[in-house]
Design brief:
Blueprint (H helix, E strand, L loop, with lengths): L1 H21 L23 H21 L13 H8 L5 H21 L4 H8 L11 E4 L4 E4 L13 E2 L1 H19 L1
Antiparallel strand pairs: 1-2, 2-3
Helix pairs in contact: 1-2, 1-3, 1-4, 2-3, 2-4, 4-6
The structure holds zinc ion.
Length: 184
């Protein structure tokens, strides 16, 4: 159940990123011109294109590493998540959690690349600090890392404890999986 929502959400967000940030605003076949065009036509976002290719490659590589006999990967990037989930559905719960954490991290990154930090902020709020266990984790929009707001929680040089999105996604997936185990 949980795995399904990770992959469905990731696919939805990737589609949003692809459609809204990669579709050329002016199509050659279109003869209609908007008289009140506020923004100049933006070129295709090459950074977003590179990003999507890298994300797709990562999920494909992860799936073939886990299941070398997995069938051919779909060509549409957002279809990769359902494919990966299906191909790895027979693996152990731990291995499926690894896949879910990767899917969740990518899902959150899709939103970030689309300019929406809200899903990351929402997830971070529900996870306690891995070091001090406080509820003061914050998303740093500038550095794309998760920071602990507790002043007594810092590294050896006095900087706030920090975690990658991947680390917090792993923590989130493990916590939700444990909740689901006790609920059934
Ligand atoms: Zn802390």
């Amino acid at each position: 159940m949980g795995g399904d929502s990770y992959s469905t959400t990731a696919a939805k967000r990737l589609r949003t990123l692809r459609v809204e940030h990669l579709t050329p605003p002016t199509r050659p076949s279109s003869s209609t011109r908007r008289a009140t065009q506020v923004h100049p036509a933006e070129p295709i976002n090459l950074d977003a294109l590179d990003y999507i290719e890298a994300a797709a490659h990562e999920i494909v590589a992860h799936t073939y590493t886990a299941v070398p006999t997995a069938g051919p990967a779909p060509r549409t990037p957002e279809a990769l998540y359902a494919w990966a989930e299906q191909a790895t559905a027979h693996l152990s719960a731990e291995q499926q959690q690894v896949r879910d954490a990767l899917t969740l991290r990518q899902s959150l990154e899709h939103s970030l690349h689309a300019g929406d930090a809200a899903p990351v902020v929402a997830m971070v709020r529900f996870e306690s600090c891995p070091t001090c266990r406080c509820w003061g984790l914050m998303w740093s929009r500038a550095d794309w890392v998760v920071l602990c707001a507790n002043r007594r929680c810092h590294d050896t040089v006095g900087l706030p404890s920090r975690w990658s999105l991947q680390q917090i996604a792993e923590r989130h997936v493990a916590r939700v999986a444990a909740l689901q185990r006790t609920a059934t």
